[in-house]
Design a protein that fits this description.
Helix content of chain B: 40-55%
Oligomer: heterodimer
Number of domains of chain A: 1
Structural class of chain A: mainly alpha
Shape of chain A: globular
CATH architecture of the largest domain in chain B: Up-down Bundle
Number of strands of chain B: 10
Strand order of the largest sheet of chain B: 1-4-5-8
Bound molecules: flavin-adenine dinucleotide
Radius of gyration of chain B: 21 Å
Helix content of chain A: 40-55%
Distance between the termini of chain B: 30 Å
Strand content of chain A: under 5%
Largest sheet of chain A: none
Number of strands of chain A: 0
């Protein structure tokens, strides 16, 4: 899966869940208060299912999750490191 | 909605276990305010305490539907006992999901066997629904967290030897494992409750209680969103299915009583206004079961939609359980209040389902925010 494809999927998910159809890829949706209490776990499950990855305790850094760009970068890093078992 | 052969066999096994060891004694548990130790041992031996723990750690690794069936049967027998499976399972789920390899190896086998019982300590005397405002503090210094504060309503806190504690670390929330014997932690009973009476609820007081940094689950700042978030998601799954069991118990008891009790020359079940209650109970249970199935199937597939559907199932099931219990009391008349029948317990316990793992109002807000 190429970089554009990854970002497209993440953008669609994030815009749908935050109900922000014009959310920019670098916008911090946590800081802007666009997310609700269910979103954090929905996002983790989405990333794992969509990209066949395992998000683990080592990945729990806000900078991995707070924007479309950040999540794309995390996914790319993990895919490059070997997918399923990788915990960057 | 067809069960696979193995799920059917598991359902029979759970039903038998509850019929033999739980349901006939559940009112005695309430009277004594506790569940007997032998029953908890039996839960461990049967693999029920390790329902959601991987086989490599000694658990039974039940799929989401089988786990749901277990909660349904236990909820039918005793909601107090159900709450043990809920909180213990929440901590196991959190460890499996976010624990380090070392933490998993240290705790999951003990949780699976029942050697260690775990409890979930989020609520405080002044903090309930607004969990982001927890006041218990955790200060990190040279590899140790120092905890100060009070947790309340910790189910099975009197029995547990491991607590998952949520504490404020500056402006962020951390989740920490705290062992029962840690100096600075004192555990006392919460005064008698009227629902979940045998859940051995505790108040935990932390006074300069020092916990090594290695007991932190995940990272500081993710305590609520990810750690409590995944625990509560699992808890809602269990409570939804457990509520289904409780509602079913109300229907079963009401059908039997309405067939037996004769007024105005015919059994209650032949009076149209009683039939209305029975029909509504039956219909609501069918609807709740469909929602529980749906969320379990999504959970089985690790579909992100499971989080919202789990909340919907818990919200709906707890509501219809309250209605079913209320109608069951109505159908039983004075006997509905009597210790000779389990109906009074169903009624007291059902309302708790609307408060725990997020109240009905909190669920309505979560659902509304996710759909609009
Ligand atoms: C039997 C039992 C077992 C429990 N076990 C545990 C446990 O093991 N671990 C643990 O941490 N906690 C446990 N709890 C505590 C439980 O999680 C809390 O009771 C629950 O979160 C609600 O908090 P509260 O009771 O402080 O009510 P509050 O948060 O004070 O709410 C009171 C009422 O106001 C409503 N309300 C609150 N905010 C709003 C709003 N914004 N809009 C509309 N209505 C609102 C609530 O729905 C509720 O009806 C248990 C409770 C019970 C009864």
């Amino acid at each position: 899966m190429d970089q554009t494809n990854i970002k497209d999927k993440i953008r669609a998910f994030v815009r749908d869940k935050t109900k922000q159809p014009n959310l920019a890829d670098d916008e911090d949706f946590f800081q802007k208060g666009f997310v609700n209490s269910l979103f954090a776990m929905q996002l983790v499950l989405f990333v794992e299912k969509e990209f066949q990855l395992r998000v683990g305790d080592d990945d729990l850094v806000l900078e991995n999750f707070n924007s479309t760009n950040a999540i794309s970068a995390l996914v790319e890093r993990k895919l490059a490191a070997g997918g399923a078992d990788s915990q960057t | 909605m067809e069960l696979e052969t193995a799920q059917l066999a598991a359902q029979d096994e759970f039903r038998l276990f509850v019929d033999r060891h739980v349901a006939p004694f559940a009112d005695d548990f309430d009277d004594r305010g506790q569940v007997p130790g032998e029953l908890i041992t039996a839960l461990g031996t049967g693999g029920y305490l390790g329902a959601n723990i991987a086989r490599e750690h000694g658990g039974r690794a039940m799929d989401a539907i089988t786990g749901g069936l277990l909660c349904e049967q236990v909820g039918r027998g005793s909601c107090s006992l159900l709450s043990l499976l809920v909180v213990h399972g929440m901590v196991a789920h959190v460890l499996a999901r976010w624990g380090s390899e070392v933490q998993q190896k240290q705790w999951l086998p003990k949780l699976a066997s029942g050697e260690t019982l775990a409890a979930f300590a989020l609520s405080e005397p002044e903090v309930g629904s607004d969990a982001g405002s927890v006041k218990t503090s955790a200060v990190l210094d040279q590899g140790w967290f120092t905890l100060n504060g009070t947790k309340k309503w910790t189910s099975f806190g009197l029995r547990a030897n491991l607590y998952l504690v949520f504490a404020r670390c500056g402006s962020r929330v951390a989740a920490l494992l705290v062992e029962r014997e840690t100096p600075g932690l004192s555990v006392s009973p919460v005064s008698t409750m009227s629902g979940f009476k045998a859940a051995q609820m505790a108040c935990l007081e932390f006074k300069d209680c020092r916990v090594p940094e290695s007991q932190l689950i995940g990272r500081v700042g993710f305590g609520l969103s990810h750690i409590a978030g995944s625990g509560l998601d699992y808890g809602r799954h269990c409570v939804g299915w457990g509520g289904l069991g409780l509602a079913q118990a109300c229907l079963d008891a009401s059908l039997a009583y309405a067939a037996r009790r004769v007024q105005f020359g015919k059994p209650l079940k032949e009076h149209p206004l009683i039939q209305e209650m029975l029909a509504n109970m039956f219909t609501n249970i069918k609807a709740a079961r469909a929602l529980c199935w749906q969320e379990a199937r999504l959970r089985h597939a690790a579909n992100p939609q499971m989080i919202l559907d789990g909340a919907v199932a818990k919200y709906f099931t707890s509501r219809i359980a309250v209605q079913a219990a209320s109608d069951a009391v109505q159908i039983h008349g004075a006997n509905g209040f009597s210790r000779d029948y389990p109906i009074q317990r169903y009624y007291r316990d059902a309302k708790v389902l609307e408060v725990i793992e997020g109240s009905s109002q909190i669920h309505q807000m979560m659902i509304a925010r996710n759909i609009s």
